Amino acid sequence: MSEFKGVWVFSEKFDLALEMLGKAREIADKLHCELSTVLIGSNVGERANELTRHGADKVYLASDPALEHFQAEAYLGVLHSLVANYKPEVVLVGSTKNGKPLASRLATRLCVGCVPDCVRLDVDGEGKLVCDRITYGGSAFAKITFRGKPQIATVPQRAFEKPSPKERGGQVIKVDVKIESACTEVVGVKPLESSSVRIEDAKVIVSCGRGLQNKEDRVLLDELAQVLCGQVGCSRPLAEDRKWFSEWVGLSGHKVKPKLYIACGISGVIQHVAGIRDAKVVVAINKDEQAPIFEVADYGVVGDLYQILPALKEAIKKYVQ
Ligand SMILES: Cc1cc2nc3c(=O)[nH]c(=O)nc-3n(C[C@H](O)[C@H](O)[C@H](O)COP(=O)(O)OP(=O)(O)OC[C@H]3O[C@@H](n4cnc5c(N)ncnc54)[C@H](O)[C@@H]3O)c2cc1C
């Protein structure tokens, strides 16, 4: 019998840890083992109960003032000592900009594999974790299993639904951890200046691409987004090349799940579309009737966004008044 047992979840982003618990619970039930989470931070003990209510049987709590902010060496040291000691067979880590390197460094220390950005997870007939990740610019899924244990995978935000909380038993185990000294020091933390709603949580997104000629023309999108109580998004070139926005939608940007996604002047190549697969309704506005966005759109308008956006705003305004 294998010395590895149990499914573990860790993310320094608490909401993502809760999201992962639903799928992790399913995997633990299929493997007939316990589901545990690791909670690392300073004064975070009161959050343990929320983890058990979302499906964890055990919470390993590492609370120390030195762990208040994420630091790769310190967090890795804690996670590594726990995983090496308790030997879970599956370790799921939140796929954040901190979580991804953390998971791969953990895998390196343990000399095992790590599969990043898994959007589907299951267990095969031999009890092995099966990970699906998007590949070839969003046009295929790669199915990956592991040769060794623990099987380490990272999970992006909103890949799985957060389970509904339920009152259920659970054990909180306080662990004494040796904090590894860091090569870096956090000298300050400044929140990002962004809109109050994260684009991943927006119900309506009005998104623009290179069809937008000038930065100031963004007002057209802002106004439509405002009447629809939505958010403005964009394709990558508007953020990365033109620097008009700080974030974008797509394969290398945010994966969004709005009820309505309006793509204005976006050609709709695979890298962009990979980020809007879970949108319920896609509306495309593009002056090129051959634009690939029309292949994925539920509704398409062939025309100039400079004419259509103001007209659409006025029409919707009348409707919602
Ligand atoms: C590894 C990699 C990852 C990438 N990741 C992403 C990603 O996450 N997200 C992303 O978006 N891109 C990503 N890209 C870039 C991607 O390949 C495309 O270059 C990009 O999505 C194109 O952006 P666009 O549609 O805004 O511009 P374009 O392809 O230039 O399209 C502009 C569209 O606007 C239309 N248009 C022009 N004027 C008007 C008008 N007045 N009214 C209406 N329509 C008009 C045109 O007909 C055209 O279809 C990635 C690329 C690589 C290589």
Give the topology, please.
Elements: E1 7-10, H1 14-31, E2 35-41, H2 48-53, E3 58-63, H3 72-86, E4 90-94, H4 99-110, E5 114-115, E6 118-123, E7 129-135, E8 140-144, E9 151-155, E10 171-174, E11 204-208, H5 218-227, E12 231-234, H6 236-241, E13 260-264, H7 270-273, E14 281-286, H8 293-296, E15 299-302, H9 305-320
Parallel strand pairs: 1-2, 1-4, 2-3, 3-10, 4-9, 5-9, 11-12, 11-13, 13-14, 14-15
Antiparallel strand pairs: 6-7, 7-8
Helix pairs in contact: 3-4, 5-9
Bound molecules: flavin-adenine dinucleotide (FAD).
Residues 209-211, 235-237, 248-253, 265-267, 269, 271-272, 275, 285-288, 291, 304-306 line the site of flavin-adenine dinucleotide.
What sort of overall outline do the alpha carbons produce when their principal axes are compared? elongated
Amount of helix: 25-40%
What CATH architecture of the largest domain do you see?
3-Layer(aba) Sandwich
Low-confidence stretches: none
Which topology of the largest domain does CATH recognise? Rossmann fold
Adjacency order of strands in the biggest sheet: 5-9-4-1-2-3-10
Count of distinct structural domains: 2
The average pLDDT score comes to 93
Q: What is the CATH top level name of the largest domain?
A: Alpha Beta
Strand content: 15-25%
Q: How many strands? A: 15
Helical segment count = 9
Structural class category:
alpha/beta
| CATH homologous superfamily descriptor of the largest domain | HUPs
Distance between the termini: 67 Å
The kinds of small molecule bound in this structure are: flavin-adenine dinucleotide
Report the order of strands and helices: EHEHEHEHEEEEEEEHEHEHEHEH
Q: What characterizes the major β-sheet? A: 7 strands, parallel
Radius of gyration: 22 Å
